[in-house]
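Q: Hi! First time doing this. I have a protein sequence and I read that you can turn it into a structure. Is that right? Here it is:
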Amino acid sequence: MPEVKPYNQSQPKKAQVAEMFNNIAFRYDFLNSLLSLGIHKGWRKKAVAILKAKQPQIILDVASGTGDFAIEALKTNAKKIIGVDISEGMLNVGKEKLKKLNLTDKIELQVADAEDLPFADNYFDAITVAFGVRNFENLELGLKDMLRVLKPNGDLVIIEFSKPTGLFSYVYKIYFKHITPTIGKLFSKDHRAYSYLPESVEAFPYGEKFCAILSNCGYKNVSFKILTFGVASIYVATKQ
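A: Yes, that's right. Below is the predicted 3D structure, encoded as structure tokens:
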């Protein structure tokens, strides 16, 4: 997987990703809804519906950002949800959101690296990641450490961008490569952030390739479902 960094600097990718999201945290929720036209909310609901049938009690939400996926995951009736992210700025926005919704007793947000999770082996019933795995500095290392903290028979559910095919791919390329960075520049003080987005999606091994990586990392029953003409996909896997 080619490494795409947000900035042309020599520092590690994860440090650059953290800096980028810290810079855009105050506008992230607004821009996320604007640029996705709100479609991402339906994607989250589909992912949570998959988990709800399994009735997980303790969920880890990796790359939790401002906490939207963790909040949606409460619909599984989980007793506890822990969200982790390398961006303290994003988590601070999420913590304020949780206070306003009176959810601080159900969801805990903390700074942590997906490649070195501060949790015991076999601890979580389920792990979720929404649009975060392509930002891992070492994809395989992150996937393996998530597998470590997942209980046997636990579920991993990932939502990640992919690339449409057919006629819709032309519309997608124009919007993602030209309109998205332009809108991002208008509303965000970090001009590079929304150019990094299409570049990181372009480099990500989506679909069957990502399923093969999950299998190689030790996950079982790996499958994926295409969303909205292939703009994104939901990946599901288990630990045995």
